[in-house]
């Protein structure tokens, strides 16, 4: 494996001198220029006297599999992968069309709005934080037209997730919950996360300040119902920032893989902005038509999008809302519903 060259810089944590052990003789470490060399102190070149006094030589530090400190990719790797896929699409288009001119990166299914990126693309395998989009087929029952956010996934151990587009005509205040939680989310609709343990309440949101929440992907969190309720009580958060769901969806070891091979689900990677769009659109729905104003979701879509209408979700049935959110995710991934059978 080729080592990655990275110039190290001291940070506040390196203020005190640190002892650095020279790599073993079997290490693949070598200085720039190719040939290994050594110093009079028995250390490889690049680890001079300054390294032991807390200072670096001018020579870059080479990270290799034999060293304990790998380089860290700060950027969201999912967004990086989406950009790579977008570049591949553009190069493929240029190869097929001699008159095609390469321009700045803008994949067909990626729309940039300010600092937010809205992108989605199909995956060959599911992963934590991806969306499972139900394919149109017979026998799905309650999972027809569903979109599931996958919270955990390991083939040998099982998977779990929450349906994010299955509303119910019930309000949270009708569930007989603890008074503090019921008061905070009194007028919020209840959603179904899945058929497993429906007596448990889950919450999805985009708030980093909710205690006890687990970050699924960057900017999307699950859990922390009590903390969320406290933020609402203190008027530090709006109750419509939280999706409350009863139950979850679960798969045993290798069960999800079997369902994928059977053509039940389409795994889709989506940006935080796309996932939050679906959550906000679902949360803008109310069991009582016109009771809750829209949250401006249509404004986040191109003018030629089939979902940019100002009609909103008012007056929709639960099934109509489910269908619209399902279509939104497919649209973001550049997929027409009739194409699902070909993927």
TrEMBL record:
SUPFAM superfamilies: VC0467-like. InterPro entries: AlgH-like. Residues 33-44 have a biased composition (Low complexity). Residues 1-52 are annotated as: Disordered. This is Uncharacterized protein.
């Amino acid at each position: 494996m080729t080592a990655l060259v990275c110039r190290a810089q001291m940070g506040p944590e390196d203020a005190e001198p640190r002892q650095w052990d020279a790599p073993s003789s079997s290490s693949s470490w070598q200085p720039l220029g190719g040939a290994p060399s050594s110093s009079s102190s028995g250390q490889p070149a690049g680890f001079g006297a300054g390294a032991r006094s807390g200072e670096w030589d001018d020579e870059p530090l080479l990270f290799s599999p034999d060293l304990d400190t790998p380089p860290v990719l700060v950027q969201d790797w999912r967004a990086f992968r989406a950009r790579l896929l977008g570049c591949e699409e553009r190069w493929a288009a240029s190869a097929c069309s001699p008159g095609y001119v390469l321009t700045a990166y803008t994949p067909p299914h990626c729309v940039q709005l300010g600092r937010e990126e809205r992108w989605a693309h199909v995956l060959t395998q599911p992963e934590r934080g991806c969306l499972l989009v139900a394919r149109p087929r017979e026998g799905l029952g309650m999972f027809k037209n569903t979109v599931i956010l996958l919270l955990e996934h390991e083939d040998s151990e099982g998977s779990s997730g929450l349906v994010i587009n299955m509303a119910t005509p019930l309000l949270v205040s009708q569930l007989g919950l603890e008074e503090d939680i019921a008061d905070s989310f009194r007028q919020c609709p209840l959603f179904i996360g899945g058929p497993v343990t429906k007596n448990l309440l889950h919450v999805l949101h985009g708030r980093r300040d909710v205690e006890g929440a687990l970050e699924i992907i960057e900017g999307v969190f699950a859990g922390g119902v009590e903390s969320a309720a406290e933020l609402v009580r203190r008027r530090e958060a709006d109750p419509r920032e939280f999706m409350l769901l009863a139950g979850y969806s679960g798969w045993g070891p290798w069960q999800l893989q079997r369902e994928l091979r059977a053509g039940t689900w389409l795994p889709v990677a989506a940006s935080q902005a796309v996932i939050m769009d679906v959550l906000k659109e679902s949360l803008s729905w109310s069991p009582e038509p016109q009771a809750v104003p829209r949250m401006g979701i249509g404004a986040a879509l191109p003018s030629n999008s089939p979902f940019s209408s100002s009609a909103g979700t008012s007056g929709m049935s639960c099934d109509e809302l489910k269908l619209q959110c399902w279509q939104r995710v497919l649209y973001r991934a550049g997929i027409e519903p009739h194409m699902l059978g070909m993927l």
